[in-house]
Amino acid sequence: MTQPNPPAPPKGGGMGTNKSSTGLQENIGGLLAYLVGFVSGIILLLVEKENQVIRFHAMQSTVVFGGFFLLGIVLNFIPVIGTLISILLAPVSFILWIYLMIKGYQGGRYHLPIAGPFAEEQLKKF
Prior knowledge:
Strand content: under 5%
Largest sheet: none
Shape: elongated
Structural class: mainly alpha
Order of helices and strands: HHHHH
Radius of gyration: 18 Å
Low-confidence stretches: 6-14
């Protein structure tokens, strides 16, 4: 008597494990999108062609940390107030960086209030 074949695992294998065109698991790609700030976001946007969750995290990373980078440059031209605001933004951006890496690793799309919808709109244009 032959044993019946076991049921196939669900497509994607569970939360955050969908593969991408780069071979990355979805949750690993979500984490890597934030790892080096907007640089890793841009790299993943250029390399990843299929997985929309990884592309979303890459776009959101580019928008958020690219914005922090540009804001830092602008604030350096403002003598005292710019320096004080830069000092306050450093821990905020660090905490946000850690938080977004955790959310990216947990899988799914986590939208920041302004950057998330903006990133979605930009992805529709690609």
